[in-house]
Amino acid sequence: MSAVFQILTLLGSLGMFLYGMTLMSESLQKVAGDKLRSILAAMTSNSFNRILTGLLVTAIIQSSSATTVMVVSFVNAGLLSLAQSIGVIMGANIGTTITAWIISLLGFKADISILSIPLIGVGFVFMMSKKVRNKNIGEMIIGFALLFLGLSFLKESVPDLGQHPEVLAFIQRWTGWGFGSVLIFVGIGTLLTIVLQSSSATMALTLVMCNFGWIPFEMAAAMVLGENIGTTITANIAASVANVSAKRAARAHSVFNLFGVLWVLILFKPFLFVVSKIVIAIGGADPRQSVDSILYAVSIVHTLFNVINTLILVWFTPQIVKLVTKMVKSPKEEEVFRLQYIQAGPMATGELSLAQAKQEIIHFATIVKKEYGYARRALDESDNPKAFEELYKKLEHYEQVTDRIEFEIANYLNDVKNSQLGEEGAGRVQAMYKVISELESMGDSGFNIARILQRKNINNKKFDEESLNKLRRMLELVDHSLDVMIENMNVGYTKLRDLSSAIDAETAINDYRNTLKEDHLMHLEDRDYLTGVYYMDLVSELERVGDFVINVSEAIAEIKVS
Are 448 and 515 within one domain? Predict the structure, then answer.
């Protein structure tokens, strides 16, 4: 019974450590969420800035997995290119080594768990605040306290080797097979990280095992290598439902870490020799012979591995891009529509969720624009029954697609709205509701054009070439207004201030509609009445599209910067 209780205590301690790490990471993301857009802007300039950004973000939120998942989401949302994401992932790998140093310096040498309960008290006071930011800070403090409280329980729940020497004997059976043992412990580190979904938790376990003399320095270093393989799994899971670019970013993370593990394994003994010399140079004992400095040595292994790997591979970013592009092929384009940027529930921060929603809405707008390309073709083929019927079905399909996309984006925005958003974020959500409603109305109008043309054909009416040319010109003006609308959507919420191009486009549509209306009234007696009705119905429908288009730009421009 005591053995079962000890195992459950060990699992509970690990669970507390993981929960503390997750709580601290997620709350830090919420606190930093509003600044992420400006941080993202800094990483586009050069490789050094990208690496530095990845390092700083990971150091702040204390989770390389969270950073890499975030990067995959940025790539998925079109905020980062594949090459930029690789630099950030490299920096994230360096940033994650800070966790090992915190645990080494504080978790074992100083009993910080003594402060954990008072820290939870401080965090609780912050949680009582009505301000969202203070609540997030309170969560961060509580997460930090639980992390070290869990680590303290983890140390206490580890069996005492003096009383249970059989534990050491069990582990030692795997440590005496030379390089084979190294590979075994690489595998153990990989599996533990996959199961725990946190390289930080596996690192904590590795350091505990070192601290109590369970495993020698060489096996601990091998486990660190395994952790760097296992940590790539999280990003690949996140990318499994994302677009092609996001999948490639996740594969790049795997390529980066696997290459690093490969060269360290080839140079395993020289690498550990260098680490030992560094430890001795800073005043420690040789970790291969003494356990006194093994914690620092393992942390140096982790840091040196990622720093050297980054210094080597940063020069080969274009080659990595080519490799992962070959690994993840672009699918053949099909006339099947699905959300491209929103693949799951909202992200940890409303800011990132809104960035994904923005890109999805821009994608929605490009689908609507494509629909009007088919509307133009339907007009041209309106007297060709077979070709028109095919285009009619296509426009009907697009109308259904726009309905579905509006519904799915609205559902996503409902979830985002229920998360903690600032005043500006709430304004952006309201604007997005307005925008997707207008885009859905444009989808309806595209199908209405097909229905008007179908009624014309059922009644055996035809437009003369002059009327067709005027309708084509009207469609050109609508097409231009759609281009302007998409440009304004790309400018960004809270940044769009100049609506002159959108106003000019809508004015051109209205003026041309008035011209066609006056011309039609002047020549009413010379034309077939029913043909004229269908003609003016098309003109009116296209003018309505112009109204929907200007409404989109106005909705974006109305958001006030907080």
Answer: yes
Q: Does residue 250 share a domain with residue 115?
A: yes
CA 545 to CA 555: how far, in whole Å? 16
450-474: b (≥16 Cβ within 10 Å) or e:
bebbbebbeeebebeeebbebbeeb
Residues 464 and 551 occupy one common structural domain: yes
Q: Find out whether 27 and 134 touch, Cβ atoms under 8 Å.
A: no
Q: What is the CATH number of the domain that holds 410?
A: 1.20.58.220
Tokens of 275: 């680490």
Boundaries of domain holding 237 = 2-327
Burial class (CB in 10 A: 0-12, 13-18, 19+), 369: middle
**Number of domains making up the chain:** 2
Q: Are 371 and 443 in contact (CB under 8 A)?
A: yes
CB distance 328 to 252 below 8 Å = no
In this structure, the answer to whether residues 289 and 366 fall within a common structural domain is no
Query: Domain check: are 437 and 479 in the same one?
Result: yes
CA separation for the pair 222, 404 (Å, rounded): 50
In contact, 356 and 341? CB cutoff 8 Å: yes
Question: Of 178-187, 223-232, 332-341, 482-491, which gets the smallest average pLDDT?
Answer: 332-341
Question: Which residues neighbour 316 within 8 Å (Cβ) at sequence distance 6 or greater?
Answer: none
Q: Domain boundary at 293, 327, 361, which?
A: 327
Can you tell me the distance from the alpha carbon of 285 to that of 209, in angstroms, rounded to the nearest whole number?
18
Mean pLDDT, the chain, whole residue set: 78
Structure tokens at 69: 């998942």
What's the full length of the chain, in residues? 562
| CA–CA distance, 498 with 178 (Å, rounded to integer) | 69
**One-letter amino acid of 36:** L
What does the pLDDT read at residue 78? 59
Domain termination residue (choose one: 272, 296, 327): 327
3-state secondary structure of 217: helix
- Verify that 490 and 530 share a domain, yes or no: yes
Answer yes or no: pTM beyond 0.85: no
- Write the pLDDT tens digit of every residue in 336-358: 456 777 755 555 456 667 777 88
Across 37-46, 210-219, 408-417, least confident range: 37-46
